[in-house]
Amino acid sequence: MSTTVQNNVVDSSLLATMNGTASGTSKTSAQDAQDKFMTLLVTQMKNQDPLNPMDNAQVTSQLAQLSTVSGIDKLNATVTALNANFQTGQNLQSASMIGHGVLAQGNAINLVDGKSIYGIELPLAADKVDVTIRDSSGVVVRKISVGSLPAGVNALTWDGKTDAGAVAPNDVYKFDVSASTAGKDLAPVGLAFGVVSSVTSNAQGVKLNVANVGDINTTDVRQIY
């Protein structure tokens, strides 16, 4: 007496194995999945009821499912390769920035012999911009009325002079910015200047190590010198 196997779709455990989601197992290769699929299909055909054979549409549907899973596996491999190539290219491009100065979001001003660079990014043109510079203790050393500035990134300098007219010592200072247009407050972003000293690459992407700023993404850079 023959045994009837009423299995009209691909076994769920097989699909789980092919997709790498089966509990306690590692993801199998596409070839291994195909071998298991063919074994299952041949077993179904061997044990089918001669009086009620498998419908050709069922076989075609199962083959289509296998083709889809295999295609996804190949697509994943292709995307992984493309991502690796992209990151390699990004590493090379970022490495060329070592030694260059950049403006990125931050509020530090590094004063060296009366020279410093900082920046302000504005969402809209401002008719009034004020900058307050403080030392490491939080004491105000200089208030600057910048005046009007256009929208976008604006690079500025501080000559190191205090409100009293003295020359501030070399140090890393902090600054705050306020801006408005027609009496309406804007949301300015302070930009710190620093030199790219190294580049780090990890699973999260490429990071630039910038003096006085820290580790930043390449997309955080607003201006390069």
List keywords for this structure.
225 residues; alpha+beta; Immunoglobulin-like; 7-stranded antiparallel beta sheet; 5-stranded antiparallel beta sheet; 3 helices; 12 strands; 28% helix; elongated
How is this structure best described in words?
This protein is an alpha+beta fold. Helix content is 28%, strand content 36%. It has three helices and twelve strands; from the N terminus they run αααββββββββββββ. It has helices at residues 12-18, 30-46, 56-95, and strands at 101-105, 108-111, 117-122, 126-134, 140-149, 152-157, 171-181, 184-185, 189-202, 205-210, 214-217, 221-224. The strands form two sheets. Strands 1, 3, 6, 9, 10, 11 and 12 form a seven-stranded antiparallel beta sheet that branches. Strands 2, 4, 5, 7 and 8 form a five-stranded antiparallel beta sheet that branches. A hairpin with a 5-residue loop joins strand 4 and strand 5. Helix 2 (30-46) packs antiparallel against helix 3. It is elongated and about 105 Å long. The termini are far apart. 19% of the residues are buried. Residues 1-10 have low confidence and may be disordered.
Q: Would you tell me the overall average pLDDT?
A: 80
User: What spatial form do the alpha-carbon principal axes imply?
Assistant: elongated
Q: Any low-confidence stretches, pLDDT <50, length ≥5?
A: 1-10
Counted up, domains total: 2
CATH domain topology of the largest domain: Immunoglobulin-like
Helical residue percent band: 25-40%
Give the DSSP E fraction (strand runs of 2 or more residues): 35-45%
Largest beta-sheet details: 7 strands, antiparallel
Question: What's the helix count?
Answer: 3
- Quick one: how many beta strands? 12
- How big is the Rg? 32 Å
- Helix/strand class: alpha+beta
Cα distance, first to last residue? 85 Å
**SSE order, as H and E?**
HHHEEEEEEEEEEEE
In CATH, what is the class of the largest domain?
Answer: Mainly Beta
The CATH architecture of the largest domain is: Sandwich
